[in-house]
Amino acid sequence: MKHAWPLTRRAAAALLAMGLIACASPTDKDYQPQRGQTGKDVIWIPTSPELVNRMLNMAKVSGQDIVYDLGAGDGIIAITAAKQFGARAYGIEYNPQMALHAQKNARAAGVADKVSIRQGDIFEEKFDEATVVTLYLLPHLNLKLRPTLLKMKPGTRIVSHAFDMGEWEADDKISHEYAQAFLWVVPSAVEGIWTLQEVDSNAQVQLNIEQSFQRIGGSITERGRKTPLLGAQLRGNKIAFQFMGADQQLRSVTAQVNGNQMQGVMTLQGGQLPIEATRR
Ligand SMILES: C[S@@+](CC[C@H](N)C(=O)[O-])C[C@H]1O[C@@H](n2cnc3c(N)ncnc32)[C@H](O)[C@@H]1O
Q1: Residue 91, ligand 1, Cβ within 6 A
Q2: Residue of 100, 128, 127 lying closest to 24 (CA atoms)
Q3: Under DSSP, is residue 63 helix (H, G, I), strand (E, B) or coil?
Q4: pLDDT in tens, 70-85
Q5: What distance in Å separates the CA atoms of residue 197 and residue 263, rounded to the nearest whole number?
């Protein structure tokens, strides 16, 4: 009996410690997140189901897509992307309890096979396989992510609830009640001097492109004569522009960019010629 009390205290301390560990454990089944709770870089407030739907519609999410929600919260965006749009969806969430809670929500929604929410920091985890990235963060966090997003595969769609990307203008925008959301399509990097030639005739011109995000302009130089690009557009890896040839015929070029190469067609007087271009 001599040791009964100290042993009981020890046992109680052990039980207390276990209890405390259980309370803080990310396996806690009763975990209920609170709107406005602190997060690493931003608090948790969920996007409404209606706006999630509209954001994913704006990005034209389909069964071909891999969607990443950066700062996944309770998983609503990833779960909706899988359940309503058929996508494979991932979430990165810093709060470990929240990440488990989101994965539990995915199981309850019947999409655990298509949704994976992992604990991690969005500024350290990789998400370069994404074809669609969704965000509900803060303006300065969007700007911090911007260089990484711009390096993603051209054509990747970025959707942000509430906050824009500074001088990278949105390609589309929706308003929903008091909220708004923006869409960007990652543009190919096309700036530089290109040699553009007709594949069949080898006739060449010099194409000079200037670029600011998805906005492009520039000129064509043909036998020493410089003429501006007209109506130049870039969306993802698809480029289109017109120019007036030395023969005063308007030419329209549409092409697909792949690194330092372009391939496409030039429309001239109703006919189409295959063209290709190489960046110098
Ligand atoms: C405003 S909530 C958005 C939740 C969800 N994306 C939505 O739209 O409903 C932001 C989430 O990001 C998480 N978060 C904050 N900083 C983070 C970081 N550095 N890495 C990963 N998650 C983070 C927060 O815990 C919170 O759940």
Answers
A1: no
A2: 100
A3: coil
A4: 999 999 999 999 999 9
A5: 10
Beta carbon of 122 within 6 Å of any ligand 1 atom: yes
State whether residue 119 is helix, strand or coil.
strand
- What is the secondary structure of 214-236 as a DSSP string? TEEEEEEEETTEEEE-EEEEEET
Inter-residue contact 106 to 81 (CB < 8 Å):
no
Are the C-beta atoms of 171 and 214 separated by less than 8 Å?
A: yes
Residues with Cβ within 8 Å of 233's Cβ and at least 6 positions away in sequence, in order, are: 216, 239, 240, 241
For the chain, the first-to-last Cα distance in angstroms comes to 90
Domains of the chain: 49-185 (3.40.50.150), 192-279 (2.40.128.20)
Query: Is 105's C-beta closer than 6 angstroms to any atom of ligand 1?
Result: no
187-238 pLDDT per residue, tens? 999 999 999 999 999 889 999 999 999 999 999 999 899 999 999 999 999 9
